Amino acid sequence: MTDAERDALLVVRAQLGDRQALGELVGRWHLPVWRYVRAMLGDRARADDVSQEAWARALRALPGLRQPERFAPWLLTIARRSVQATLKPGHDDEPVAEPVTAPSRSSVRCRGGCWPPGSLGSPAPG
After folding, report:
1. Higher-confidence residue: 69 or 97?
2. Given phi > 0 = left and psi -120 to 50 = alpha, else beta, which region is 122?
3. Per the record, which residues fall in region Disordered (predicted)?
4. Tally of CB atoms within 10 A around 84
5. Of 7, 15, 28, 105, which residue has the fewest beta carbons closer than 10 angstroms?
6. Residues of the chain above pLDDT 90, percent
7. pLDDT tens-digit map of 22-75
8. In angstroms, rounded to a whole number, what is the distance separating the alpha carbons of residues 85 and 87?
């Protein structure tokens, strides 16, 4: 059995819910995907992040893979597109979260009273 045939069999088993098969696929392809991504990015830390994102995308899409025998090129295409997405202008490795400010209790008004009664500074329904 060739590597491609073995991968195809593992893909079908994984699609049917076999976690061991999925683990084997990831085990077989984790390092090759990481090396592929690192070769494009030239940075180990970024390769870690991008290959993790590629795997997340691949695992979400695996149930829809219709040609299991094309697993390797399919997976590497996902990895390449993940790299391309990080290289687009405007992509930020660490998005800055907008600060969230909770409204003060006195600024919140509840129509018809709040539950539990008296919460958020509003009078209990009466």
Report:
1. 69
2. beta
3. 86-126
4. 12
5. 105
6. 67
7. 999 999 999 999 999 999 999 999 999 999 999 999 999 999 999 999 999 999
8. 5
**Helix (H/G/I), strand (E/B), else coil: 122:** coil
pTM: 0.70
**Can you read off the two tokens belonging to residue 32?**
């090759």
Query: Please, what is the Cα angle at 69 between 66 and 74, to 5 degrees?
Result: 70
Question: What pLDDT, on the 0 to 100 scale, is given for residue 93?
Answer: 52
Contact 43, 29 (CB under 8 A): no
The domains located in the chain, with CATH, are 3-87 (1.10.1740.10)
